[in-house]
Amino acid sequence: MLRFLTAGESHGKCLTAIIDGMPAGLHIQEEYINRCLSKRQMGYGRGPRMNIEEDTVQILSGVRAGKTIGSPICMLIPNRDWENWASIMDISVAPMTEETRVTRPRPGHADLAGAIKYDQLQDLRNVFERASARETVARVACGAVAKRFLEEFDIIVMSHVTQIGTVRAQNLPKDLRLVEQRALSSPVRCADLNASEKMVAAIDECIRSKDTIGGIFQVLATGLPPGLGTYVQWDRRLDARLAGAIMSIPGVKGVEIGLGFKYPELTGTQVHDEIILDEHSKKLTRRSNNAGGIEGGVTNGQPLIIQAVMKPISTTKTPLQSVELETKTPSVAHFERSDVCAVPACGVVAEAMVAMELASALMERYGSDTVEQIKIALKKDLDNLP
Predict the structure, then answer these.
(1) CA torsion 94→99→105→109, rounded to 10°?
(2) How far apart are CA 244 and CA 203, in angstroms?
(3) Minimal CB count within 10 Å: which of 10, 157, 206, 232?
(4) pLDDT tens-digit profile of 248-265?
């Protein structure tokens, strides 16, 4: 069983993550993880904190001489901004002063609901320091290890932005490798370079109007063997697990696989992927991939295609209405520095979550204690495909 946990607050000393269940023999370097972390920090419309943090990982356990050894992998990512918050976030002293306490909940955040749940109405910071999207740095670190694992089996996971505001990508390459290349060259990680310029302009308009903007990103995975996941229990269906993993990302409010919400516009004969025999390989294949690579909760050998929508960032420079909790008087919501648009970064986090779920599903089917043993089992399975 492959699993991970994260810990840490947004302005605490650091974020930490533990991956349990990663097989032995996987080549992994801190530099590889750091490259994935840097992708999360990119994207036009990010806030001032990206000028402070330079996320780098320290692998504390589970790796020796550049290879995993089968024991839990512990990683640490320091928060450089901790120096500016040490007195407020101190773990020994309760620094609850009138100046540091937050009692005006922000609409769209976990502030009020979380404070009610954990009895933290006296200081909302105790909620939003953990609910902050800063936690996703640790997820990206875990996902980087999972992506490196999947690469051993020629499985590639990537993401790109398809919409920001009302601007949609129209001219996308069919070659997924070209999609990735173009996305990396775009300030908003959009593979349609014409749309990319318009997306930047839409973000600029939100900057001028002191507002925020959301969008849609797509996560793609190629090289997946058929048979990952299962239909035998509801909570083990791979599509359900993937949707839940992406929905767990702060700001994500909707997920679809394949055609998703376009299905009602079409009939059954138009959408279902017909099974045909490839004339050259004499293997079974599909005429299309409207299902997005999953049927009945199981991968079918086609590329995985997932779309997700991220809402506009909840913290806005234009004050939103709220209530001062102590006096119960109308007020404006608390403001803490914020991004204007984080859709490109959200796609990178989704890559990480998808990679973790796919790595877990791969191990469930071909599970073993070493990477080499999994390779042997997978090759044998692939050689026997119809």
Answers:
(1) -70
(2) 28
(3) 232
(4) 999 999 999 999 999 999
Q: Identify the three-state secondary structure at position 270.
A: helix
Q: What angle do CA 169, 173, 175 make, to 5 degrees?
A: 140
CA distance 202 to 164: 8
CA distance 292 to 256: 9
Q: What percentage of the chain's residues is helix, strand, coil (to nearest 5)?
A: 35, 20, 45
pLDDT in tens, 140-184: 999 999 999 999 999 999 999 999 999 999 999 988 889 999 999
Question: Which ranges constitute the DSSP H helices of the chain?
Answer: 30-41, 111-118, 125-131, 136-151, 176-185, 193-208, 238-247, 268-271, 343-366, 371-383
Q: Which two tokens stand for residue 110?
A: 């976990």
For residue 347, what are the domain limits? 3-258+293-383
- Domain CATH for 159: 3.60.150.10
pTM exceeds 0.90: yes
Q: What is the number of domains present in the chain? A: 1
